[in-house]
Amino acid sequence: MRDGTPYTGDFGPQVRALRVRAGLSQEALSHAAGVSVRALADMERGRTRGPQRRTVQALAEALGLESDEAAGLEKSAALGRPRPGPAAGPAGPGTLALPRDIQDFTARGPALARLLDLVRDADPDRPVVTVVAGQPGLGKTAFAVHAAHCLAPHFPDGQFALDLHGMDPEPTTPRDALARLLGAMGVADAAIPAGTDDRAGLWRSLSGGRRMLLLLDNAADESRVAPLLPGTGPSLTIVTSRHALAGLESVHRTDLALLRREEAVEMLTRIIGPDRVRAEAQAARDLADLCGHLPLAVRIAGQRLLSRPHERLGKLVARLAAEGRRLDGLQAGNLRVRAAFALSYRQLPPVSQNVLRRASLAAGADFSPRTAALLADLSYDEAVACAEELTDAGLLQSDAVAERYRFHDLLRLYAAEQVEAEDEPGVRDTALDRTASWMLRRATVAALHFDVDHERTTPSDDPDPDRAPTGREEARAWLEAERAQWLAALRRAHETGGYRQVLDTAEAMHWFSDLNQHWEQWVEVFRRSADSARLLGSRLEEAVHLNYLAWAYNHCVHDPHAALTSADAALAAARECGEGLQEGWALGYGAGALHRLGRTEEAQERLREGARCLASQKSPQSRLAELSILNRLGTLLRQTGRAAEALDIHRRSERICRAGIPGRTDQVITVYLAVARQQIGNDLAALERRHEAEAPLRQALAAFDAAQMSAWTEQARLDLGQVLAALGRPEARETLRTAHDALAALRSPLRVEAAAALAALDEAAAGTG
User: Fold this and answer.
1) 710-726 and 732-745 helices cross at what angle (nearest 10)?
2) How far apart are the C-alpha atoms of 580 and 500, rounded to whole Å?
3) How much is the CA Rg of the chain, to the nearest whole Å?
4) Using one digit for the tens of pLDDT, what is the confidence trace for 239-261?
5) Full-model pTM
6) Going by DSSP bridges, is the β-strand pair 213-217/159-163 parallel, antiparallel, or unpaired?
7) Which CA distances in Å does 436 have to 12, 483, 488?
8) What pLDDT shows up at residue 71?
9) Beta strands 405-406 and 397-398, pairing class
10) Residue 265: closest CA among 101, 104, 100, 103
11) Cα 394 to the center of its chain, rounded Å
């Protein structure tokens, strides 16, 4: 040896001695040889006694060894490499070699980093197993292959890949898989044991001391994976499956999400080139969205465009935009999104196939087990079991908190295709009618928790009394979660002639709608109910629901023209049937629309007429309507510079509330009192009596907040913030910022007023700075 460094036959100490002689740290030698610091440290400590020849050659070059020293180092490594037993023969070249890596592999950086950390931090005596599972098309195999290539330097004793054919009619058995693995380790065919357990034992014995990487792709279930896992040693096994494989113990999980939009565009760019993407940047983004950011779909779209270099991206976007043709458009050669979904669908038992395809009929972004049960005509517990099975199979995604499930957009399209292919039209219609009827019955009972005319609901009226919402909080939660579903049910009932059910449900929703006036769908609810009343020939109910519709146009979508049309129609119907209460409401809603249209004098006249009409009525409902009219009249007077008159009218409203209204709960009166106090505060502010205005505005804000009336709460907060700003209070900015953000989330036009108030604060601060 050049300086007396002896050849000892012990690879680790020899590497360390040569490194020290060269004056290199482990980090420096790692960088020069292209070997990780962890791998180098394992060699020097003797954990890795026989790295592969190419690793030894890289170390020799980095250390500047002469040929005889390099040969000695290789000889030491060769002595440390595991040898097959007496019955084993040499492994064939390329036996179970890793598949070719994808050159345009995109994203997944965090998942790769976590896997690398897992390898670096692993106990050398305990094999690492990670499961990559998820829905079809996520790119599980592509990720696993890419990760295996990236991690290969950490596993110098070999990398093996085995396809377990989990989606085939007859997946690979553990016995056959073990035979292939043993053959790859150099065991002669004649020496491979006959039984599965004996093969598994020999496999664990041979793999136990190796730093090797094993890729088990496309596993059907746990029973076909467990016998193949090494028992000891510093190996890594990556398992891919469309199933969760939740039964595998002591494993790590690599969760692949859908690509982000920019990642999907980057993937497209790598496939077809930056010039085409740059030329149609928006079309590229639209294409990523139409592919649902699903890697398989994006790849197919890219490969299709790559094969047609002169075709514009916008052309494919236009084709995929039609839902009925989207899956047809997502195919390129033998790559087909539909085929990937079909593999998983065919593996399901018939009852789960039924749940999957029928669930595509559910409205909204997600659905509950109850909806799935109704559509598939199953019990609740049966639907839950099927939904969980579909989640484990990667065909549904479960909510992190609630018991709800969702499709990927493309999977929903595939499931809807199966409805058309496998279910007769009559069966589909029966499922939808059954679901609509149940949903409207539940929605009606839940909404009546908020109706002041129905202080108590009857659980027996619910289609499932044992699981019916109890109390307002549960009712609100159900109505919110199932909003899309009960609205779709209302739509179907109206379209199929269930007019009485539409009216009953919409009437029950009346008070609940006041708490959620930011929901734009109230226009559709009350438009359908008003139409149902007309078709049933009930002019009184038509007047009632036309008034509800005018309210929705005024407050939910801010369309005063449509509101005035509905209010005028309600007024005509109310006068025709001599209904003073509805006449008063119609005059009030019409006045609100006129005011928004800038026709202030006409609005004032209608409000005065409405107040006179309602004052002559004796019912508790008329008192509440009178309070509403008076509050609007006072607001309009203040806005036209008559704040003193407005204050008198709002004080009158306050007195009515304090006197109480027979037949109405304290909770209802509290809300009306809060409205009056909010307007009193605004009147006082307009009269520049701002110190007096603060207290009633805070009282109103607290009352609305306690009643969970979001839109009312934030309007009162805005009013309070403006008064605080005028008073120079430090809390004004936070109050206005909170109001602005909440009003923006509610899509309220008042967010503009809040933004202007904040800007005025900034301008004032800049002027004094």
Assistant:
1) 150
2) 24
3) 36
4) 999 988 989 998 999 989 999 99
5) 0.73
6) parallel
7) 73, 13, 7
8) 86
9) antiparallel
10) 104
11) 15
